[in-house]
């Protein structure tokens, strides 16, 4: 009987002639037989239906500044209520949230979508981020939370690995306002095979093309730079030229410092010089807004006006401590328009 089935009916799937269900929420496209779950551990076939087992089960809930996602060109300084479920479609050996993402038991506080949106309101957050694990795997729950959020004037952000599908992008278009797509090791094939357990990163590029061409979702791109993974920077060059050609020179790109975690404790943190090389590469490719992340106090956390090179937004870590834009988000020094969506929410006094 329907009421005894675990979770809630999923919507992104195709029934196959062999009786299995092909899940279309992520690019793994698991073909799942009755009584089994897909690789992520939270979508499974029960009673001949694909069910989202973690629907309404929230494992984490934190308030962070939007800059922590990282997102720097969308409602800067806003407070974000971040949630996750258990499970993930990737198997990253360096995952900082492995306790959540690699858990295959459905756990978490029971919350309805309305309760999630209400919690965000009560915390005084302006947005909800679906993060810590890959949100496309629980997209039906995220969509329902996101629609409740919109009713309350709250926006929605995905922090996604981008290993998504046309079906999941289509569902995103119903409720998502902003996405930051996290490449790892610049999407280099040897890296993603060895450390993530996916054959290649093609679906991530496809997802970005799909989002750009079919939705109005604000896009930022992140690349976790892992030392030794791409010494000739060829994959980074490919990534930057893709972003420039297909997403546009105004797209923010963040190069994040890697820290050893989980099964990659023998790696070194990314040398700052290597991050700076990635920044220079992005600028050389024509990208106007490149940033370094996880290096608090570095000058390349700031936003520079591409016309006059003045610091238009100064940051320290996840906090804004300088704001030199007028009400139309134009540079106060030269008047150039800086493509920031929304307005400044919170600025701190000078932090460095
Ligand atoms: S969301 Fe989960 S079940 Fe669906 S294809 Fe991806 S890993 Fe498989
Ligand atoms: Zn300027």
Short description:
The protein is α/β, with parallel strands linked by helices.
Notes on the structure:
With 352 residues, this protein is of the alpha/beta class. The chain folds into three domains: 2-52; 57-295, Aldolase class I (TIM Barrel); 302-352, no CATH class. Helices cover 23% and strands 23% of the residues. It has eight helices and 19 strands. It has helices at residues 98-101, 113-122, 139-151, 166-172, 189-196, 202-214, 234-247, 272-284; strands spanning 8-9, 13-15, 21-23, 31-32, 43-46, 49-52, 57-58, 60-65, 79-84, 109-110, 127-130, 155-160, 178-184, 218-225, 253-257, 290-293, 303-304, 311-316, 319-323. It has an eight-stranded mixed beta sheet with strand order 8-9-11-12-13-14-15-16. The protein starts with 7 loop residues before the first strand and ends in a 29-residue tail after the last strand. Bound molecules: iron/sulfur cluster (SF4) and zinc ion (ZN). The site of zinc ion has 8 residues, from loops.
| Silhouette | globular
* Global Rg: 20 Å
Strand segment tally: 19
Whole-number count of domains? 3
Biggest pleated-sheet summary: 8 strands, mixed
At CATH level 3, the topology of the largest domain is TIM Barrel
What's the end-to-end separation, in Å?
61 Å
CATH-defined superfamily of the largest domain: Aldolase class I
Structural class: alpha/beta
Share of helical residues = 10-25%
- Succession of helices and strands: EEEEEEEEEHEHEHEHEHHEHEHEEEE
What's the pLDDT, averaged over the residues? 92
CATH architecture heading of the largest domain = Alpha-Beta Barrel
Strand order of the largest sheet: 8-9-11-12-13-14-15-16
